[in-house]
Design a protein that fits this description.
single chain
Length: 425
């Protein structure tokens, strides 16, 4: 009887200790947010305003197809062009940011995006559309490596949480994006001239970034950045590229992004053309996809500080695959949202782990691999999906190219080294 009481008392004591530790951890997190809020909040705001353009091409894609008589293959090429300039070039800009630690790179990002929106609004032909998308992608490439690295170094103790907040702010922008873009194109679908008013978020992002990357910045923070970013050259770049876990994480994100980008690229066409629904339903589906990503990103960041990140990555991706396949078969927006929620667990986890695999002076470069290069490589599958859709049907093509890559990404997580994990189940 006494042994039973002792066991019960031990369990109660353990629960009290765990609760007390959680309260201490939460209070530390709140203090850290208050300490860095002058930089964290503008960074979150800028990410929201930048990523509000994520659905620009997918939403206007049906209008471009109709106006310029594009095929699925040509539409897929436009998506790949945007992803190439917006993702594959990120390691270059990440390296330059780590090498020269200049604020000019990131301040150019919203200006390039504003120019691209103006180009799309008045594009006379297919060539100008391509040039505008190159500017849009370049703006994305200039923004993400430096901003993600800055968030990561604000509070190394709460890196996963800060990164998850940063990812969530971008997901919120992406969630608002479909209706934001639809607001300007719905009034007059025959022309895109109203897109000129969509440059406002880009200008707001520029203002936010000016608050973070001021010339007269906090001297302590500025010196910390200088110490971590000097002496970073080609030798250090090659050393980073030889990091096995970083390359494996990049492969995982590549496979996951192949699924997500394919779904994003053809979601509007699938719902409006194949399923014969109104464009507003396509915008609603895109919003649900991004809302699931927003909530899932926050949830993943919360779990990453408490459980084994490798298992969380595998679990989220392997469970997302059947949900997204079910969406295509049963036309269920609930399954689409659930699949997006599950797959988004991996967002902040993969970025946080990638930063942990490299020295502090290579944070921008590491972030560019998992937030840029991997997404660009994943986008290369989109023209193949478009070609297969032209040969068969879009629904048939997506039923193969949506669930398979993300399931393979979950399997790849099992080969991540345990040494990268700082939490245990």
């Amino acid at each position: 009887m006494s042994d039973g009481l002792t066991s019960s008392q031990a369990q109660i004591t353990s629960s009290e200790v765990t609760l007390e530790q959680d309260e201490i951890g939460l209070s530390r997190l709140i203090r850290s947010i208050k300490l860095h809020h002058t930089r964290l909040l503008p960074l979150l705001g800028s990410h929201l305003f930048i990523d509000i353009y994520n659905s620009l091409l997918p939403i206007i894609s049906p209008l471009l197809i109709q106006k310029y008589a594009l095929t699925h293959l040509m539409a897929g090429f436009l998506n790949s062009l945007l992803s190439f300039t917006g993702a594959l070039l990120q390691p270059l800009y990440g390296f330059l940011c780590d090498r020269f630690h200049s604020r000019r790179f990131i301040l150019l990002a919203p200006l390039f995006i504003a120019l691209s929106v103006l180009g799309l609004a008045f594009a006379p032909n297919f060539g100008v559309i391509c040039l505008s998308l190159i500017l849009l992608g370049t703006g994305f490439s200039l923004y993400h490596p430096k901003s993600t690295a800055t968030v990561g170094i604000l509070s190394p103790e709460h890196r996963s949480t800060f990164v998850s907040l940063f990812v969530a702010s971008g997901s919120l922008g992406s969630a608002l994006s479909p209706f934001f873009i639809w607001l300007f194109v719905s009034s007059n679908p025959d022309t895109l001239h109203n897109l000129v008013y969509a440059i406002v978020p880009a200008l707001a992002a520029f203002w936010c970034l000016k608050q973070v990357y001021r010339k007269k910045a906090n001297p302590v923070h500025h010196q910390a950045q200088i110490r971590t970013q000097t002496n970073f050259g080609l030798k250090q770049l090659l050393a980073v590229c030889r990091k096995k876990d970083l390359m494996l994480l990049s492969l995982i994100v590549t496979l996951r992004s192949a699924t997500i980008l394919t779904l994003i690229a053809f979601l509007s066409q699938l719902i409006t053309n194949d399923w014969e629904h109104h464009l507003i339903l396509a915008a609603w589906a895109a919003t649900l996809l991004n809302v699931g990503s927003l909530v899932g990103g926050l949830f993943g960041g919360f779990l990453a500080e408490r459980f084994n990140s490798r298992l969380l990555l595998a679990l989220s991706l392997m469970l997302a695959a059947p949900c997204l396949f079910g969406f295509l078969i049963y036309k269920s927006l609930t399954l689409l949202t659930l699949g997006s929620f599950l797959s988004a667990w991996s967002n902040s986890i993969s970025v946080s782990l990638s930063q942990q695999t490299v020295p502090a002076k290579a944070q921008s470069l590491a972030s560019s691999f998992t937030m840029g290069l991997a997404w660009g490589l994943g986008s290369m599958i989109i023209p193949v999906v478009g070609w297969f859709a032209d040969v068969t049907s879009l629904t048939h093509s997506l039923s193969y190219f949506v669930p398979i890559p993300i399931f393979l990404a979950g399997l790849c997580c099992l080969w991540l080294s345990d040494c990268s994990q700082d939490k245990n189940v």
